[in-house]
Each structure stands twice: as C-alpha cells, then as structure tokens.
Amino acid sequence: MESVERPGSQMEMQRQPVSIRDSYRGSGKLKGKNALITGGDSGIGRAVAVHFAREGCNVFFTYISEDQDAEETKRLCESEGTACHMSRGDLRTAKYRGELLEQFSARFDGLHILVNNAGTQFTEQSLEDISEENLRETFDLNIMGMILLTKEALPMMNAGARIINTTSITSYKGKASLVDYASTKGAITSFTRSLSGQLADMDPLDTGDHAQGGSRWLREGHPLGRCGEPCEVAPAYVYLAGEDCSYMTGQVLHINGGTIIGG
Length: 263
Description:
Shape: globular
Structural class: alpha/beta
Strand content: 5-15%
Number of strands: 7
CATH superfamily: NAD(P)-binding Rossmann-like Domain
CATH class: Alpha Beta
Distance between the termini: 36 Å
CATH architecture: 3-Layer(aba) Sandwich
C-alpha cells in the first residue's frame, strides 16, 4: 500500500494559518496528560497539539510526509515546556499502527487523549471521475484507519480517557466535488455516536467529535463572511479533552462560522 504525499506543506503557503493566539492563556487544564494526535503536523492538527501543550499536555503526533511542518509543530509544542514526539507513517497499515502505539508506550505512561484527525481528500467534479484507487485511499485513511487505530489503542486507555474525532461540515451538507470525502466524514459522525453508546456503560471514554474537517474553507455562504483559523477551532478540543465536558458524549460541536446545520 503506497502512501500519497498529501495534502502538501503548510510552510509553503503564502499566508500562514494561525495555530494559536498570543492572547490564549493556558491554565493547566491538561497538565500531566498524554495525547496522541494523528495528522498533527499542520492545520487543525497542529493547532490542537499546540493548545494541548499550552495546557500542560504531553503530545505525540503523526504525519504522512511533511517533515518541515512536523518539525515546526514539535518546536511549537516544546516551547510550551511539555514533551513532544512525532512519528512519520501511513495509518492505513497495521504494521505502522502497531509500531506507533509501541513508540507511544515507550515514551509516555498511559494514553489519556486520542485525537483522530488525519484525513485526505481528492477533488473531483463528477462521480465518474473518482478513481477506485483514490476512493479506497480516502476511505482507508479517513474512516478505516481511524476505527482500527481506536480499536488498537483502547487497551491503553483507562477510565476518564478521551477520544476526539474530527468530522466535517460535509457530513451534514455534503459537497458536490468531495463525494467520497463527505461520505467518510458522515461515517466518522456515525462511528462517534455509535462508539459513545457502546462505551458509555463501560465508562472508559467520553467520546466527542468536532465538526470542522480542514482549513480550506470558502468565504461564500459563511455568515461571518470569512474563513476560520485553526486557532478558533483548537480550544474546542481542549474542552473535549478535559473534565469540563464530563457530561458530554457522542456529540458534534459545529464550529463553522455560523452555518446552520441540522442534526
């Protein structure tokens, strides 16, 4: 199974997304916690990693191929005074997922927060143009890899641990040019709700999922009339990861600039 180098380098973007506001003050909400974040080298993943670190959380994140972006995320996290490790690999493969969890266990004592954020997308205007190869890659990474990693990580998580899954506005509204991607995000929403019901009686996890799947948002149709910044999304992950959301499970937080969505 070959990995495609996507989605590209954040470092090469003409305008850099804001990962964290200077005004954001950590208060130790996640002090002593250890988090595993998939797709943490850029965008929302980087913002979540840095916000977690500012709240006192140790971070271990994965990425596909963008070494320079990953190094910058690591630098930003370590500048907050917490430990940060990174791992490059393909979450679609059982071999890498096993190695990843072994690496995590060797560095941190206990997995308190799992953030399933990694994902990919291929834009096609027609269903007929979606190749089977791209379709399988999208599903294998966005939902299959997420479910399998969560399954494999569960034995490492004790009562009070958190699972946070990144879904998307396309899960509710769809998008003509992202048929396969939107389908995976709908599956992520259903997976989150179903898993929360399955684990509720066991009480090892409080599962939430966050509705914003990327930072390439269009201005058109947004009530606020602008694109969102990753730093406007990441505080929700802090909330979901901490004790403040102890009575929330299987829900979606719609942080999308005010777009009204049913469900």
